[in-house]
Amino acid sequence: MRCLALLLPLLLVTASPLAAQETDVVRIDKRVGKLESELRAVQRKVFPGGESRYFEPEITAPAAAPAPVVGTPATAPLTDLTDRLGELERQLRTLTGQVEANQFKLRQLDEAMTKQRADVEFRLGALETGGARPATAPGTAPGTPAAPAAELPAEAPPRAPAKPASSPKAATADAAWKQAYANVTSKDWPGTEAAMTAFIADWPKSTRQTQAQYWLGRSHAERDQHAQAARAFLKVYESAPRSAQAPDSLLGLADAMFGLKKPTDACRVLGELDSAYGEKLTPAQTAEATAARKRAKCPA
């Protein structure tokens, strides 16, 4: 009995650290399980398609270690947690690298689109000066000679817009629009030019400003005034790229550039049309863009 009395405190002292260790292991295991669940949620958010090229398989716990021999310290749970934490860190590094790679690609696409727009604006600026070559091209350091550009074909000087018959100014923007659009319906293109020019000047806050600018471009295009049409169409796209008239304006701009004997620029505009709107184009717009590419002999 005395021996049992002496051994009992010793057993209690020995069991206490083991119980505390088991409690720590359970608490850490819960935290690791939570981290794994959050990581899987991040994977599903970043890669919703779940394609095998991008989506890492969900974390699976390593194979269970053999049961420890009775009488030896229970280190297998700690080893398991260490392995799982290492797997979490590896997958987090992989996700971070993939996100950074995607961000880099997006920046490259944005820079390419900005360069395309700047190039179109630069060439249209040359049109506005009557074919004169500007001192420097966009992106060229000051003092560097501009790259030689093809001479623009001589065009007849723009005619002054035909003055519509004198009539009292409309009381509202809607009434003014009806009067101006009547010229479009009758295909009176000189009258359309004058009416839309007046509407743009008289009703600057109207929601139909974009439509008026588009029909101003069409009035020039219908009379083969390609330089004026190009300026009007470009203004529509730059001022209202999300408007219903923006895709048609790019089509009109491409046609104007082809009329100016600039098929390469026309192809660039059609490339901008495809990258900006793509599947949003109507069947009629897609057919018109296809015909324009063939006419300008754009590369596939």
From TrEMBL:
Keywords: Cell cycle, Cell division, Periplasm, Signal. Residues 1-19 form the signal peptide. It is found in: Periplasm. Residues 129-171 are annotated as: Disordered. The keyword Ribonucleoprotein does not apply. GO terms for cellular component: outer membrane-bounded periplasmic space. Pfam families: TPR_6. Residues 132-154, 162-171 have a biased composition (Low complexity). InterPro entries: CpoB, TPR-like_helical_dom_sf, TPR_rpt. One of its GO terms (biological process) is FtsZ-dependent cytokinesis. Mediates coordination of peptidoglycan synthesis and outer membrane constriction during cell division. HAMAP family: CpoB. Belongs to the CpoB family. This is Cell division coordinator CpoB. The lineage of its organism: Bacteria, Pseudomonadati, Pseudomonadota, Alphaproteobacteria, Sphingomonadales. The gene is cpoB.
